[in-house]
Structures are given as structure tokens and as C-alpha cells.
């Protein structure tokens, strides 16, 4: 166990052992918050069956309570205890779980998930993450774990334990360090509660892989409906670094940083980081949030971003970048989301 600096209270547990995971599970059972690695981004975990723990998650992030949380479970059997899986859900789960896919399903009231976690809806978002540390934690805890990304609401999601410490260090009891996240963008959120599956948030599982399995094209999120939650995936400003973000940059100024993609990039930026020199979208997704953080430096006017194709994981990458570039709410205005 490595104690973090005196100014922050969380312990970062590097390469967690079974004993450390058991301790994390005890903390969860106690209503405390534990940051844990997943293959997408780090999660801010709390007992999904406890209103008190879920309230603590919302408070730690500064997240609006009408925005529901994902319940993470160890396997399909555990998912069946909190949600109703139909045929489509079972096929998707069998093919893509564990992995970066979240299914919005009819909630089983007897499943015990806190109504605060689901924002009072009759649906629940369920995911089985693939990271071995996440799976060990979920197995040890034995109950669903509510887990939004472990960052202050509205800011760039964490893909390393150091990112979590930076944003939420004093607000979690423990940080399990599972290394850098392999996927790098949040899970794809697919709503299966209606007749037609709807893509609520593009993410780490590309749309075409889901469409290939279902055998038809996916609908987008339905237009805003007052009966439904507003997903952060539908909110404008999100994933925001401090500096403004400029998209589709064909040229770059000397006081700008460049977030580059592919072999042909403009010269002249103050600093350049490559998402993928070969134009590989999987590599680009894995680098996206860490690079955005590293380019968010004082003294730079803006972060310029190379054009990125909309295919495959490009849909999720562009979604996050558009939100990073969107106009920000005023500092004293309504809080940022997620
Ligand atoms: O990759 C991920 O999904 C990460 C890791 C930690 O698992 N978690 C994550 O959680 O991104 P969060 O809370 O930031 O995003 C959950 C998304 C939000 O867009 C939320 O509005 C939506 O899922 N959501 C949750 N429950 C829902 C429900 N019952 N109906 C519709 N959307 C829901
Ligand atoms: Mg988030």
C-alpha cells in the first residue's frame, strides 16, 4: 500500500492483491466510496443498494441527482437479479459482457437498487466490466456497485489512478490502481427498455458491432422527453478541459496545443500529442482523455484537434470532443453535468 501525499486522504493501492480488494469490498459495505479501474475509465464506486452511499457519490462528483448511475455487476446472473433481460439483452450480454456495453433495462423492484441511483425510473442501467480488478471487487462485494466516472462533474474522465487522485483524492476512501484503462472512453449505453433499441451514448463498443449482432440499424436517443432523464451523453458541455477546444483543425497557431490524429498533421503548434500516428481509432480512444489533460496547460490559448473519422470508435471520440468544445455554462450558472 502506498500512502498518498498528506494533503490528500485517499490511499492508492497499486496492483491490488486479494486482501486489498477484500478491504475495498468492506469499505463499500460500510457505505464508503472506492475508486476502481474498469477497461473504459475509472469508476467512483458505492453500494448501489444504499441511498446513503449513492447520495455520497452524487455529492463527491457534484453531479445533479436527476442523472441516473450505472449498476456494475459481476456477471449475467447478477444482472438478472436487478433487471429483466429479454432475448435481445441476453444475446448482447452473451456476446459483449464483460465489456464496454451498458444496457438500460426494466428494473426489478425486488433487486434492491437504490431509487436514487436510478433517479426514480423504472429502468436500470447495467454493465459487467471487463477489468480483472473490477471483476474481483464486484465478486468480493456481491452486490451491485453504482459507478459513474471518477471525476468532478463535467470534467475530463480519468483513465489512470493518478487522474482520480487529482480530481477526487480527498473524497474517496481508497483508489484501486489497475493501470491505464485499455479502452479509454466510457461504455456504449444502449436502451433496451422500449421496442426499438436506442443508442443513448456512443462509447467503447462501436455501433456497427451491436448492429451486426441485432441485424438492424440502431435508433439514436429519442428527443428530450420530460419523463426521461437527461443523459450526459445528451448534454452539451461535458468532458471539459480548462482551455477551449477547437475541432477539425487544418492549421494550428504557435500559442495552441495540437491533439493530432493520423500521419498528415499541421506543423507549428506549441506542443503536439498524437492520438494515433497511424490513424488507429482504438489507439486514439485509449489516448484521448490522458492527452487532453496533458495539453490543458497554462499559457496555451486553446487545444486544436485534427479531424477524426466518424467510423467505428470515431463516433465516441468525436462525441466526447464535441462536448469538450461546446460552450461552457457560466461559472455561477447551473452546475456542469456528470
Ligand atoms: O464506462 C462507463 O460506463 C463508466 C465506467 C466507470 O463504468 N461509467 C460511466 O457512468 O460512464 P456515468 O454515470 O458517467 O454514465 C452513465 C450513463 C449516463 O449517460 C446516464 O444518464 C445513463 O448512463 N443512464 C444511467 N441510467 C439510465 C437509465 N435508467 N436510463 C437512461 N440512461 C441512463
Ligand atoms: Mg462521466
Going across the major beta sheet, what is the strand order?
Answer: 1-2-9-3-4-8-5-7-6-10-11-12
First and last CA, distance: 30 Å
Largest sheet, in brief, is: 12 strands, mixed
Topology pattern, helix = H, strand = E: EEHEEHEHHEEHEHEEEHEEEEHEH
Count of distinct strands? 16
Mean pLDDT: 91
Number of helices: 9
- What's the alpha carbon Rg, rounded to whole Å? 19 Å
Q: What sort of overall outline do the alpha carbons produce when their principal axes are compared?
A: globular
Helix content range of the residues, please?
Answer: 25-40%
Segments where pLDDT lies below 50 for 5+ residues?
A: 1-8, 332-337
> Which ligands accompany this protein?
threonylcarbamoyladenylate, magnesium ion
Assign the structural class, choosing from mainly alpha, mainly beta, alpha/beta, alpha+beta, or little secondary structure.
alpha/beta
Percentage beta strand: 15-25%
Question: Can you give a write-up of this model?
Answer:
Strands 1-2-9-3-4-8-5-7-6-10-11-12 form a 12-stranded mixed sheet, with helices on both faces. Strands 13-16-14-15 form a 4-stranded parallel sheet. The model is unreliable at 1-8 and 332-337 (pLDDT under 50). The protein contains 9 helices and 16 strands. It is of the alpha/beta class. α1 crosses α5. Threonylcarbamoyladenylate (TXA) binds next to β6, β7 and β11.
Amino acid at each position: 500500500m502506498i500512502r498518498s501525499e498528506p494533503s490528500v486522504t485517499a490511499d492508492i493501492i497499486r496492483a491490488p492483491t486479494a486482501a486489498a480488494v477484500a478491504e475495498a469490498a468492506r469499505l463499500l459495505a460500510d457505505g464508503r466510496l472506492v475508486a476502481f479501474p474498469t477497461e473504459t475509465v475509472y469508476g467512483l464506486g458505492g453500494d448501489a443498494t444504499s441511498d446513503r452511499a449513492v447520495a455520497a457519490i452524487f455529492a463527491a462528483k457534484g453531479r445533479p441527482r436527476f442523472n441516473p448511475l450505472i449498476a456494475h455487476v459481476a456477471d449475467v446472473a447478477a444482472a438478472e437479479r436487478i433487471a429483466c433481460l429479454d432475448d435481445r439483452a441476453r444475446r448482447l450480454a452473451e456476446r459483449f459482457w464483460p465489456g464496454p456495453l451498458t444496457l438500460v433495462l426494466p428494473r426489478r423492484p425486488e433487486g434492491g437498487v437504490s431509487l436514487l441511483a436510478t433517479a426514480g425510473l423504472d429502468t436500470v442501467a447495467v454493465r459487467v466490466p471487463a477489468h480483472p480488478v473490477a471483476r474481483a471487487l464486484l465478486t468480493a462485494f456481491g452486490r451491485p456497485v453504482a459507478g459513474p466516472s471518477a471525476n468532478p462533474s463535467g470534467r475530463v474522465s480519468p483513465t489512470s489512478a493518478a487522474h482520480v487522485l487529482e480530481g477526487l483524492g480527498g473524497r474517496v476512501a481508497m483508489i484501486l490502481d489497475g493501470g491505464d484503462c485499455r479502452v479509454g472512453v466510457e461504455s456504449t449505453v444502449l436502451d433496451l427498455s422500449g421496442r426499438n433499441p436506442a443508442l443513448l451514448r456512443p462509447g467503447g463498443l462501436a455501433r456497427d458491432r451491436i448492429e451486426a449482432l441485432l441485424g438492424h440499424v440502431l435508433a439514436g436517443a429519442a428527443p428530450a422527453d420530460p419523463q426521461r432523464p437527461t443523459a450526459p451523453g445528451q448534454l452539451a458541455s461535458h468532458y471539459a478541459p480548462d482551455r477551449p477546444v477547437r475541432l477539425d483543425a487544418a492549421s494550428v497557431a504557435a500559442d495552441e496545443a495540437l491533439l493530432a490524429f493520423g500521419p498528415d498533421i499541421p506543423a507549428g503548434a506549441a506542443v503536439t500529442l498524437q492520438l494515433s500516428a497511424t490513424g488507429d481509432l482504438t489507439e486514439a480512444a485509449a489516448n484521448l482523455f490522458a492527452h487532453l489533460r496533458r495539453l490543458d496547460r497554462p499559457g496555451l490559448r486553446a487545444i486544436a484537434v485534427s479531424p477524426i473519422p466518424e467510423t467505428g470508435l470515431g463516433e465516441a471520440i468525436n462525441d466526447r470532443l464535441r462536448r469538450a468544445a461546446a460552450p461552457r455554462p457560466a461559472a455561477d450558472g447551473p452546475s456542469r453535468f456528470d
